[in-house]
Amino acid sequence: MSRRRPFHHIETHMPRSSFWKFPLYVILVPLLPVLRIFAGNVESTTWQSAALSAAILFAAYLILRQILVLLFFRHPLVDPLLACAFTGTFLAIVFVGDDNKWFWALIWLATGIVLIRWPLRIAFFNSFATIFAGIFCLQSLYLIMANPIMWERASIVDAVQKVFGDTPTAASLPAEKPDVYYIIFDRYARQDMLRNIYGFDNTRFLAELEKRGFIVPRNVYANYQRTAVSVVSSLNFDYLDKLQTPQTAESSDWVPIYSQFQDFRVARFFKSIGYGTHFFGSWWEPTRRMASADQNHNFYELPEALRLIYEYSLIVDVARGVGLRKFDPLWWQCERSKRMFDTLADLSEDPAPTFTFAHFLIPHPPFVTAADGHCMEIAEAGAQTRAENYSGQVRYTNQRILQLVDALLSKPGPRPLIVLQADEGPWPEKYADKEVDRIGRDVRNPDWLKISDDELHEKMAIFAAYYLPESARVGLNDRSTPVNTFRRILKGVFNVAIEPLPEKNMIFESYENPYRYRDVTARLYPKAPQ
After folding, report:
1. What are the φ/ψ torsions at residue 97 (nearest 5 degrees)?
2. Strand-pair partners of 399
3. Is the separation of the CB atoms in 119 and 81 below 8 Å?
4. In 41-128, where do the E strands start and end?
5. Nearest to 517, CA basis, from 324, 229, 284, 120
6. Of 379, 380, 342, 381, which is closest to residue 365 (Cα–Cα)?
7. Of all residues in the chain, what percent are helix, strand and coil, respectively (each to 5)?
8. Which residues lie below 8 Å from residue 96, measured CB to CB, with a gap of 6+?
């Protein structure tokens, strides 16, 4: 009676894996998901970010392969089984989507079982895997290179870098240069919206800020409705109308706007007068790191494509199932904000003055942080209402803001300048999507030209608070918008010959063209009836 030979005794005449010689798909398979993601998101992704993701994933794949080759004595099944495991674990995001990932994994598990039981199928698998990966890699490369954005981007980026003008010059400087903090709390709603929509009274927190010397306007609207355009406008203290050029007339490319986070007029000004620059980033690629900063502070960061591949992989589902929270990007999101607050408060005493720009993705979804600061499991957040989850993150944010402010105001030296500001309000619930268990997937695309007045108010009404000397408060009132924040600071503190702009509130018309803007000031501040 014949017995099946064990795994390590498969026929030796079959091709063996080696350290330096392997099937072509070993190169193609780890590159495939990054190429597919880049091809589908050319308008919002740089080739540099995609290349970094691909390099990290490719290196990790080859290191794991070499470990397996050593462990299994260069066994011919190493490459096929590793390819099956990788494809089943990581490629669902680009082929079948998140909802069908387990079915996708079962297909590749079955393929691996077939290879183990009938090893002579290895030659067929090698050919199939090479053709499969090759076709989709070539298709992705074609889509990338055929996209006109790739060829127009350089000129648009160059044009965008020039439209805001030269770095302003200070006529004279204060005797002691104060540290400057510009801190964005993403989607932090205005007090009236918190009360009317979320049933949360923020009066006590705002009063505590005022007690510490902050000006807290009660009727502020953002200049734009999304983070990229809103914050780029405030960092360059100008409106984005100048971006409407013949080159951008029909462009859907967001990257030239995103590029402004790497080099903007506020940072250039402070560098020009001897300031050091600190940047605190998020998981969102445009504010993951700031190229021109002297020091970047980020936690649990991954290049965007790599973050997406990992976040939607089976590794995360398994980690959540067995309670390994440190492998869960939702836990990273909760811990990141804590570490940002802690590090901001504990910045080393630098003899030189510093400009610090921080982008906090809280109270921005996903809802992972409870009011008392503990990191919630998906089940806990899912058992609460949207209002409870959002207001809980606001409560936690408020507590940490007050602690941070107290720490900054207790430092020796001149009083700092502190700007606390939201970039946009929360999404109206009808447009919200997955706000509990996913990162970066929390909205549906609205038709901005048809959005209702109530929805527009909710999206544009923002929290803002300013700790500034009297000289920088001139003209500051309940209708002051972020575009003028640094105009007042530069003029009032650093004697720059610059004046505030007219207060306007704008929306870009569609995601397909972020360079066309519509003035909605009259909808937000309707005239009193005659």
Report:
1. 85, 175
2. none
3. no
4. none
5. 229
6. 381
7. 50, 10, 40
8. 103, 104
CA 476 to CA 333: how far, in whole Å? 34
Q: What's the pLDDT score for residue 8?
A: 44
H, E, C per residue of 17-60: CCCCCCCCHHHHHHHHHHHHHHHHCHHHCCHHHHHHHHHHHHHH
Cα 489–chain centre separation: 27
CA distance 232 to 234: 6
Q: Which helix (H) or strand (E) holds 493?
A: helix 485-494
Query: Is there a contact between 16 and 76 (Cβ–Cβ < 8 Å)?
Result: yes
For the chain, 530 residues long, the average pLDDT of each consecutive 10-residue run is: 45 44 87 96 94 96 93 86 95 88 93 85 88 95 94 87 86 90 97 96 98 96 96 96 83 93 94 95 94 93 94 94 94 96 84 93 96 96 96 98 96 93 94 85 78 95 97 93 97 95 93 90 74
Two tokens, residue 395: 């409560």
CA-to-CA distance for 519 and 341, rounded, in angstroms?
A: 35
Give the chain's domains with CATH numbers: 7-146 (no CATH), 150-524 (3.40.720.10)
Which pTM was predicted?
Answer: 0.92
Which residues, listed in sequence order, are joined to residue 221 by a DSSP beta bridge? 461
Per-residue pLDDT, 237: 96
DSSP conformational letter for 437: S
Q: Which amino acid is residue 200, in one-letter code?
A: F
Residues whose CB is less than 8 angstroms from the CB of residue 380 and which lie 6 or more positions away in sequence, other chains included: 370
Cα(398)–Cα(420) distance, rounded to whole angstroms?
11
Closest CA to 407 of 216, 177, 179, 176: 179
- How far is the CA of 460 from the CAs of 61, 482, 521, in angstroms? 45, 12, 10
Tokens encoding 68:
């397996």
